[in-house]
Amino acid sequence: AAGVIQSPRHLIKEKRETATLKCYPIPRHDTVYWYQQGPGQDPQFLISFYEKMQSDKGSIPDRFSAQQFSDYHSELNMSSLELGDSALYFCASSSPMVEGRGTQYFGPGTRLLVL
Amino acid sequence: QKEVEQDPGPLSVPEGAIVSLNCTYSNSAFQYFMWYRQYSRKGPELLMYTYSSGNKEDGRFTAQVDKSSKYISLFIRDSQPSDSATYLCAMKDGSQGNLIFGKGTKLSVKP
After folding, report:
1. Using omega within 30 degrees of 0 as the cis cutoff, is the peptide bond preceding A61 cis?
2. Is the pLDDT at A64 greater than 90, yes or no?
3. pLDDT class for A103, splitting at 50, 70, 90?
4. Is the model more confident about B71 or about B94?
5. Chain A interface, Cβ < 8 Å to B
């Protein structure tokens, strides 16, 4: 079965640079969530989109922005990167229309390292 | 106090043992409860999904939710070395809401 696709899988940036992370949800899933997981931490919710509109906002810094496109893929844009932004970034997708409505399926993550 | 509390372990058991993992929570509005398994440097993999109170069984895994006690459990029967991973409980109040995770319990199953 198709899963959530994230790219790139690994990214190395320097402080104050920008980064763009991409997420391709499972086909027919209309909701995308972004989570940040620091070393040894649980995933923390950043932001979510439903039908291309922002649906909820968590602990996302103002330096970050995201959007969902017409094909339902989503991009997380990160600017003025700081050392503390180094983490695993997960995208998850869900659909309220299938069994286990709202169940979130996670992608493999993008490992961001800020030097 | 975190909304979801989970003992981080580590938990080490011999192969074939029954494993019990637990989480407690404080938000009575939570209705959707999930268990994820996460291998090192990988994405969380959905194991079990339960709506409201009750039990759910899938192979060697059984999930239990007791909303009156705000307590959820995951049982793994006949544990295998391949079950060695971090187990995260997660929950939310609405079908579209974001997940609130526990800290995760690191499980090691020794051959």
Report:
1. no
2. yes
3. confident
4. B71
5. 4, 31, 33, 35, 41-45, 48, 50, 55-56, 58, 88, 90, 92, 94, 96, 100-109, 111
The pLDDT tens digits of the residues spanning A75-99 come to 999 999 999 999 999 999 987 665 5
Q: Which two tokens stand for residue B28?
A: 């009575």
Q: Please judge whether A102 and B98 are an interchain contact, meaning their C-beta atoms are less than 8 angstroms apart.
A: no
Q: b/e map of B9-47 (b: 16 or more CB within 10 Å)?
A: eeeebeeeeebebbbbbeeeebbbbbbbbbeeeebbebb
For residue A85, the SS3 value is helix
Dihedral class, residue A31 (left if φ above 0, else alpha if ψ from -120 to 50, else beta): beta
Task: Give the closest residue to B102 by CA, choosing from B90, B94, B93.
Answer: B90
* Distance between CA atoms of residues A45 and A41, nearest Å: 12
Best mutation target among A23, A42, A59, A88 (most B Cβ atoms within 10 Å) is A42
Minimal CA separation from A95 to chain B, in Å = 8
Which residues are registered as beta bridge partners of A24? A5
